[in-house]
Specification:
The protein has about 350 residues and is an alpha/beta fold. The protein folds into two domains: about 230 residues, Alpha-Beta Barrel (TIM Barrel); about 70 residues. Helix content is about 40%, strand content about 10%. Helix 8 crosses helix 10. The longest helix is centred in the C-terminal third of the chain and has 17 residues. The radius of gyration is 19 Å and the shape is globular.
Length: about 350
Amino acid sequence: MLPTDRPALFLAPMQDVTDLPFLRTIASFGGADLYVTEYFRVHIHSQLDPYILRSITENPTERPIIAQLIGQDATELARTVSDLNHYPISGVDLNLGCPAPVVYRKNAGGGLLRHPDQIHKILGRLREACGATPFTVKTRVGFESEEEFDQLLRIFKSHAIDLLTIHGRTVKERYQTPVHDDRVAQAVRTLNCPVIANGNVVNSQTGLSYLKSTGAAGLMIGRGAIRNPWIFEQIRCATSKQEIPQVTGRMILEYIAKLYDETAHEISEFIEDRHVQKMKKYLVYISQGHHADFEHQIRRVKNKTEFFDTCIRFLDHEDHAPDLPSENSRLFCGFSQFL
């Protein structure tokens, strides 16, 4: 499933962001090597979400896609794996990293990291339920403290998981700190399965540095890929000593227009102003590193005309786009550790 001649590149799953139209869009700009769905919420009454399921049945990337689950009931998680095995998935992933309070307060996602015994039970049930289907885990290094990672690592090692992705922060650190790359390196040394490094990859240099400091088998990129969908191709070129493609303002403008159209096509009852609000969620990432007025103005647009007028004002040029976002933003913090 992973490339054998270079580090693997994953698109990180982000709820309500990396949906089917986003997958179509990012794949058109080179895309990742592997993809992970938004998470399927699992509980006693849950069924497979039809919209998320389309990312599997209509997979537009022509690359492997892994189904991610979130929940805290081992029996229901195993049931959901059985349901998913009827579809063309390349693996099943357990989310142990979501830092959203609405999730972790229910002891799901990153909240499960406070309950190592429950994780141990869940991993055993899911490994059995997956059978020959690859079983992967995405985790953070702890809930309150990175020191929790030693115990978590012992649990991961005791189960035959096929791959571990580590976002190198605790749940409480969210996205506001440098990553604990030493903990990712510890996992690489300890586990028999491939380890994928996640967090603070915002350009090719930060990606290469994260790989070098950890020895990871690859990278998972989320927010950096929203901002710059060419980041996967840039890292592929960097790892093979090829010239790194440069991105211009007009290329970003093309990306925004394509994303707007792809997301619009998925809306059965299209309401322009509501669609513009969805696009603004992407633009707060895309605008990072550009003139500060770009983000300020895009947050205030109310309709399609205002939206594209603002994008054109800041992006309709052939100059190179900023390679880095601002490290002072609330969206991108701590990445200078890799520069």
